[in-house]
Amino acid sequence: MASLPIPIQNLTLGGDPLSLDRIRGILTRLEDTIIFSLIERAQFAHNPRAYQRGAFQELKDVGFDGSWLEWFLKETETFHAKARRYTSPDEYPFTNPAELPPPILKPAPHPPILYPNKINANASILSFYVQSIVPRITRQATLALSALKRANGITGDAEFEDDGNYGSAAFVDLEVLQAISKRVHYGKFVSESKFRDDPAAFIPHIHSRDRDALAALITKPEVEAKLLQRLRKKASLYALNFSPDGEPLDDSATRKIDVDGVVELYEHYIIPLTKEVEVDYLLVRLDGLSKEEVDALASKENR
Q1: What angle, 0 to 180 degrees and rounded to 10, lies between the N-to-C axes of helices 20-42 and 166-185?
Q2: What is the pLDDT of residue 123?
Q3: Of 26, 73, 143, 156, which has the most beta carbons under 10 Å away?
């Protein structure tokens, strides 16, 4: 099974990129991409060596001291940077931008959408993915690997975790990380859209640095509840295997992924981190503006 491509919004065509309906469509499609990418990663064992810095002598020999996944990210993002991927307001590299080359092409003519900011949550995303997501979603494959190794006389610590599929696993890791990153950073679009709708509601809380009040302005618990409900239904469906005659094999032993793990990933990490990005963005939304400019925003009527 190939994972779904990451949704891309064409920012050079007509239409409002800050339309909440348009943003919602991107976020809904990203759910599918994230679920299918996690299913792909779940077929490989944990392979913790791929996430340990300095574990590969081959990388040390070429002067790289990070992990296999960090090297894979840097090599891929180096090419993507040349193709001007990170000039788009909805794309963020995991590699330090100072270590990436400039684009070969001139910047695309994107209309001004987001307020200038340097918010990048990818370091947090990468750490959580490696420490929490990978061990959980690969548990079934890791246990299957250990059973196979025991059958071949390999026991103890050597029977667990590593199937040697470093390249294949890293390829899917990259897809998962890019999709989660886009999903989280799309919170900036949500914040900008809601700020433009009613600047006066946000400005006092930005001045007072009241994170809770800002979060309350952009949070709709009923929408989050529907999102998690929809996500569970999708993950439950996509996790099914089918018999040769097309009948679904609906039992936990044959599911491709831990459905509860997918829902908890969203509920306890992706949604809260997105809110942090949304609030962080709002807190810099007035930076560099004069008092007159801020007053003019505050006097605008709701859109």
Answers
A1: 160
A2: 97
A3: 73
